């Protein structure tokens, strides 16, 4: 499949296979016999696959390519000439893994027609957020620095665990270099791609070699995300802005406005009490008209 998919780490082999595919197509177009079989992974190790580590096999499985038994492979070999094609891909595919790869925008173009196209993720801003949702940087901004570091470190550990095929990130030590866990250039590239999708950043392929531990990677992400510090009142002020918009959309129905005004009195009284105020403001609020209360919301915003 290297000639069709451009398999990572097999550039010379992929080029040779692509030439053979083209030669078979050229011969058939000229009325001559020609058939090139693009083989997927076989269960039985060969000179090409015998060196593959468990990490490599898990990466292939995540890409949707499953190993062929010798019996199945030979049966397909016998059936191929009768199909009248010049190039055939002979492999087992995992439909769920293909859908997952498509969701990560990592499915090779030649396989995209086999799965329903997912909605493309928007990565134009740092912290790839779902449409209408907060970005990663926005979710991290209100957190204390220590909690922010923990969230980013756990994110990196989770992605490292996924690349290595672990069920969760508990097996990944935040202070241990990922190369000691079995990372190579290909798994490093896969991790980079997953973190790109999670953060919306464009990270270098050398990320885990420049920052070898999950904690070091998390620190680098924090720097690149350029998370703006927030003051304690910013979330409240943001909610007040949203509340003002909602209130403006309420009809002039007296009952609805009275109920809203009553709740506003309660909220403002709570705010004054939390600030250590005396009882006088509470009395003023009870005496305020609806219009004065709505005006006060605008002033606090």
Automatic annotation (TrEMBL):
The keyword Transmembrane helix does not apply. Gene3D superfamilies: ACP-like, NAD(P)-binding Rossmann-like Domain. One of its GO terms (biological process) is antibiotic biosynthetic process. GO terms for molecular function: fatty acid synthase activity; phosphopantetheine binding. Residues 118-144 are annotated as: Disordered. SUPFAM superfamilies: ACP-like (SSF47336), NAD(P)-binding Rossmann-fold domains (SSF51735). Keywords: Multifunctional enzyme, Phosphopantetheine, Phosphoprotein, Transferase. InterPro entries: ACP-like_sf (IPR036736), NAD(P)-bd_dom_sf (IPR036291), PKS_KR (IPR013968), PKS_NRPS_Biosynth_Enz (IPR050091), PKS_PP-bd (IPR020806), PP-bd_ACP (IPR009081), Ppantetheine_attach_site (IPR006162). Residues 150-225 form the Carrier domain. It holds the Pfam family KR. PROSITE patterns: CARRIER, PHOSPHOPANTETHEINE. This is Phosphopantetheine attachment site.
């Amino acid at each position: 499949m290297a000639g069709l998919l451009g398999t990572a780490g097999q550039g010379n082999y992929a080029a040779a296979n692509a030439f053979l595919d083209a030669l078979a197509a050229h011969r058939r177009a000229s009325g001559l016999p020609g058939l090139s079989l693009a083989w997927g992974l076989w269960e039985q190790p060969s000179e090409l696959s015998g060196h593959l580590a468990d990490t490599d096999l898990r990466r292939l499985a995540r890409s949707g390519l499953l190993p062929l038994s010798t019996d199945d492979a030979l049966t397909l070999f016998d059936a191929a000439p009768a199909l009248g094609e010049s190039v055939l891909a002979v492999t087992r595919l995992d439909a769920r893994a293909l859908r997952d790869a498509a969701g990560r925008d990592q499915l090779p173009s030649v396989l995209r027609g086999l799965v329903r196209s997912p909605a493309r993720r928007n990565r134009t801003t740092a912290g790839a957020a779902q449409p209408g949702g907060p970005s990663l940087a926005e979710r991290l901004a209100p957190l204390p620095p220590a909690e922010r570091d923990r969230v980013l470190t756990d994110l990196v550990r989770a992605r490292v665990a996924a690349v290595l095929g672990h069920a969760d990130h508990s097996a990944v030590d935040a202070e241990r270099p990922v190369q000691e866990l079995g990372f190579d250039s290909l798994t490093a590239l896969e991790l980079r791609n997953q973190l790109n999708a999670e953060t919306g950043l464009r990270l270098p392929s050398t990320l885990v070699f420049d920052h070898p531990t999950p904690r070091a990677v998390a620190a680098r992400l924090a720097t690149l995300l350029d998370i703006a510090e927030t003051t304690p009142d910013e979330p409240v002020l943001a909610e007040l802005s949203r509340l003002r918009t909602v209130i403006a959309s309420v009809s002039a129905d007296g009952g609805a406005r009275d109920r809203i005004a009553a709740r506003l009195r309660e909220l403002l009284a709570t705010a004054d009490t939390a600030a250590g105020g005396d009882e006088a403001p509470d009395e003023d609020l009870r005496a305020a008209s609806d219009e004065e209360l709505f005006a006060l919301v605008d002033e606090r915003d």
